[in-house]
Amino acid sequence: MDDLKKRTLVDIAADLDRVFDKTYETEGEITPEIEAELEAVQGELAAKLDGIAYLCKVVLPADADKLKQLETAAKAKRQALENKRRRILDYAGQFVELMPDGMKGGPYKIYRGKSESIEINSITDIPAEFKKIVISETPDKKAIKDAIKGGAAIPGCRFVKREDWRVR
User: What separation in angstroms does the CA of 142 have from each of 66, 101, 139, 149, 162?
Assistant: First the structure.
């Protein structure tokens, strides 16, 4: 198996080309030696493709799932740390307010910052002059596909057929 990992599909394809070249040299006759060599190369190719299929079907999706789980865990951890920071500052702030001159000394200062924001309770109650209207258009790809397949010509669209490799 280690030899298969070292050899690439390009290497195997080159071997396959060499075997086919031998058939040209024998004017299309497939000798027992050529047949044995062809079977060996085809077996190696099948094993290599099987490994690629395993990589695409099992290994890479598992790694992607692992990363997705790590992202979710990291997001939860970040949120927990932000909440912890806020709770600690709220707690410490109670003691800062008890000090007559606030917190002095040391390289850091805990103080109460002020900010302003608007909280929206009901968007329907807000007068029109205080609203922005945002229009977003997205094409209905299914309807376009059905129309084009039915013979319609839709400006700005074209029907594209693609082939890709999949692993079951």
Answer: 33, 68, 9, 11, 16
Give residue 168's pLDDT band: very low, low, confident or very high (50, 70, 90): low
- Six-digit token string for 116: 């302003």
Pair 32, 146: CB distance under 8 Å: no
Domain boundaries, the chain: 2-149
Q: Give the model's confidence band at 27: pLDDT under 50 very low, under 70 low, under 90 confident, else very high.
A: confident
SS (H, E, C) the chain: CHHHHHCCHHHHHHHHHHHHHHHHHCCCCCCHHHHHHHHHHHHHHHHHHHHHHHHHHHHHHHHHHHHHHHHHHHHHHHHHHHHHHHHHHHHHHHHHHHCCCCCCCCCCCCCCCCCCCCCCCCHHHCCHHHCCCCCCCCCCHHHHHHHHHCCCCCCCCCCCCCCCCCCC
> Rounded to an integer, what distance in angstroms lies between the CA atom of residue 65 and that of residue 62?
5
CB 165 within 8 A of CB 49: no
Task: With a cut of 80, say whether residue 103 has pLDDT above it.
Answer: no
Mean pLDDT over 35-62 rounds to 94
pLDDT value at position 112? 79
For residues 149 and 155, is the Cβ–Cβ distance under 8 A?
no
